[in-house]
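Forwarding the complex inputs:
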Amino acid sequence: MTRQPDPRRRNEQSRRAILQAAAELCVQVGFAATTVEGIAARAGVGKQTIYRWWPSKAAVLLEYMQDLRAATADFLDTGDVLTDLVAQTTAVQRLLTSDAGAIWRGLLVTAQTDDAAASGVRELIERAIDDGRARLATAQRDGQIRADVDLDIAVELIFGPLYHAWLLRARTLPEQHMAEVLRTLFAGLAPTPA
Amino acid sequence: MTRQPDPRRRNEQSRRAILQAAAELCVQVGFAATTVEGIAARAGVGKQTIYRWWPSKAAVLLEYMQDLRAATADFLDTGDVLTDLVAQTTAVQRLLTSDAGAIWRGLLVTAQTDDAAASGVRELIERAIDDGRARLATAQRDGQIRADVDLDIAVELIFGPLYHAWLLRARTLPEQHMAEVLRTLFAGLAPTPA
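Prediction (whole assembly, two chains):
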C-alpha cells in the first residue's frame, strides 16, 4: 500500500512557513517596507501561493498575530478569575512589548486608513474581547464579579489601560503591571465604606 | 496721542485663524492630504508665516487640539471627584466623536511613524494625564479615593477604556458611557464582602 501525501498537512507546513517569514521580515524591515513579494522570497514560495490564501500582507500578518495570541495568551479557568486575568493580560503585555508588538502596531496604524485591514484588525480584537467577556461571565455567575457589572465595560476596563500605556504613552511597563492594574480595578477606587 | 497696533494681539488673531483653517482643512480633505500650503491658502497668509511659528502641519494641528481641549475639557473641582471625572471624560468623549476626533486620529497615526509628531502627541497626552492625576491627588487627599491607589494606574484606568472603545473598536458610545465606566471603576469589579 503506497502512502498518499496529505495535502492538508503540506498546506499547514507551508502556511506556517509563510506566516513566520512575514513576521520576521516585518520585524526586520518594518511594516511599511514589508511586501508580499518579500514574504514570498523569504518563505521560498511563489507570490501566487500567498495570494491564493491571503489578499494582502496585512492579512498574512493578522493571521500570524491570531495564531500567536491563541498559542501564548489564551484565557485559562483555574477557578479564580483574578489569577486568570493577571496571567492572560501579562501574557498580552509580553506580546505587545516583544517583536510581535511592532507587527501589531503596524497593523493598528494601517487599520486607520485601510478598510480591509481595519475589518481584519477589528475581528481579531473582537475575538479577544469575546474570550475575555466569556471568562468574566463565568466569574460573574460564580459570584467573583458583582452581578450589576456590565461585562462590555469590564473588558474595556481591563484591556484599555494596557493599550493606553503601550500604544499612546509608549511607557515601559514593569512585569507586574497588569497585576497591579487588575488589583486596583477589582478593589475599585472608592474608599471602603466605614 | 496715536494708538500703536498691538503686535501680540494681531499675532493671536492670526494664530487662531491659522489653527482654525488647519482644522477645517483636515476635516474636509483628511489628515494625509492636508498640507502647510493648503492651510496657508485657507487662512489667507503666506506659507512662511506658518513656518515661522510651526515646523509642520502636525505641529499646527497639535496646537489646535491643545487649545480645544483646554477650552472644552478642563478638569473642574466641584468637591466631588466622581462628578468632575464624569464631566471631564464625557467632554473628551464628545471631542473624540466630533470632527476633532478625526484630526486627533490623524495625529495619533502619524505619531507612530514620525518622531516629531510623536513627541508632540506624547506631550499633549502627558499634559492631559498630569491634569487628571492632579485632580485625583486632591480627591485622594480628601479621602474620596483609597489611599493605596497608584494614581498613574488610576489615570490609565479612566482614559484607557475610552481610547480602547474609540480608537481600537470604533464603537458607538452612548452619551452616558463614561458615567457608567467611572461608576464601575469606583465601585470595583469584586463583589462587596458580605
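Chain B has two domains: 10-53, 68-187.
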